[in-house]
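User: I'm curious whether this sequence folds into something compact or stays loose and floppy. Could you predict its structure so I can see for myself?
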Amino acid sequence: MNSLTCIIPIEPTTKVCRKCGIPQPLERFPFEKARQTHRGTCKACRAAESRALRSSAEHAERIREAERIRSKRRRPYILKWQREHPDNMLPGYRRRAARRKERLAAARLAAAQATPQLF
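Assistant: Here's the prediction. I'll summarize afterward.
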């Protein structure tokens, strides 16, 4: 063997999924740009794993809790923006106030018609 011979690494065309253990073509494994390599689990196994996770009750509770925390953290910034931009808030506020008035008037009218008039 010649000492000048350069060893060229050959890129594998298949990979074994570490979840299902089935050898598959590289196209079936997601590519991670940051690591410049394919993931260890195939797309089908990752999809099944994600489906199972999303359908669990504990995952739904974690999402709700994260949303509660996020909204608590964002609330001061939202209130500050609303104070700084009152003109943007007025149209929606007026629309909601008008609807509230209509609902109250309808409820009063329904209550007045439901109660018998004693004269």
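Summary: Strands lie at 14-16, 23-25, 31-32, 37-38. Residues 34 and 74 are 31 Å apart (CA to CA).
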